[in-house]
Amino acid sequence: MKILSIVGARPQFIKLASLSKKLKQFHDEIIIHTGQHFDKEMSDLFFKELEISKPDYNLEINSGNHGEQTGRMLIEVETVVLKEKPDIVIVFGDTNSTLAGALVASKLHIPAIHIEAGLRSFNRNMPEEINRIIADHTSDYLFAPTQIAIKNLCAEDLSSKSYLTGDIMVDSHRSAMLKVQDDESLFKYSINKNNYYLLTLHRPYNVDNPALLNRILFELGKLNGKIVFPVHPRTNNIINQNNIIIPSNFIITKPLGYLDFVSLQSNSYKIITDSGGIQKEAYILKKPCITLRSETEWVETVNAGWNLLINPSIESYYAEKIESFSPSLKYENIFGENVTTKMIEIINNIS
User: Fold this and answer.
1) Any idea where the domains of the chain sit in the sequence?
2) Fewer CB within a 10 Å sphere, N or C end of the chain?
């Protein structure tokens, strides 16, 4: 079969890496990179490090508001799909690239697979939540990462097309851990194993308000330990434009490649983030995670006691809470094993 995989951002590259290698053993795969990950250098580095084939199409759509960006993607993705005439379209996650791919496939009556289906934060103010819901309802095969995701899909009467596959990031992370050079990252930033926090911030509700961003950094500056902070371009712009002071315990870096970031994750003491995927990565690596959000789509990690939610918009003086947070000794494998193999078996049986 001819299969069209659509990606556009960091988490999707990571998911594609494991799947693409297996897909190409059985099928003809075409890769579309929408360009949503707007740093070309970083995008190219991810493809190289993850050993993903060069995209067959790079649409370079990386600007504009949500409506404009999604609209342009719809036009360009449809053009490619009409040209290539794939048997199946695969979309990943919850970005505008996901939404565009799922809608195009649905309107052209081409079977679509949504990988990472069934996630719900139940916060429809987040564009990602809308993207997830539409992708699930328009796709034909829903690959759910967890039992809670399956439960969510059943609640929306989507059980007949849902499959509990596990999360493909398990396979991608395992492959990455075989390649990382721990000593290199520790030496580069003059840090010691299990003796620093790793921070990521990029959500608009945390970084677009300079006063709130300043409060977050000030509060994290109270932590007893170094904080390695790879700064997202969006966050960096707000910091520079508003002369926000960086606390003395911060180590600022540019955005990192996947292997460097996994190395920092695996050697960190705790991870602080507002990202969805990094919460899951922290759990896979058995790292305590503090999520600076009021809710999460990865409720499994909270229920397991490994993820602490803090809403910086309404909470203050939470540095002590971060320092004292300690997961229970109990650890369950909630994201599965041999996920890629399970997905390929389902795909190979699609006729």
Assistant:
1) 2-167+336-348, 177-324
2) C
Flag whether pLDDT at 310 surpasses 80: yes
Catalytic hit among 27, 33, 37, 202: 202
pTM of the predicted structure, to 2 decimals = 0.94
Q: Which CATH number fits domain 177-324: 3.30.300.30, 3.40.50.10440, 3.40.50.2000, 3.40.50.2300?
A: 3.40.50.2000
Are 149 and 143 in contact, with CB atoms under 8 Å apart? Answer: no
Q: Look at residue 41 in the predicted model and tell me its pLDDT.
A: 65
Q: Which CATH superfamily includes the segment(s) 2-167+336-348?
A: Glycogen Phosphorylase B; (3.40.50.2000)
pLDDT confidence of residue 290: 98
Q: What is the mean pLDDT of the chain?
A: 94
- Helices 66-84 and 96-107 pack at an angle, to 10 degrees, of 50
Q: Is 202 a catalytic residue?
A: yes
Return all residues near 142 (Cβ < 8 A) that are at least 6 apart: 113, 114, 117, 118, 136, 153, 158, 161, 162, 163
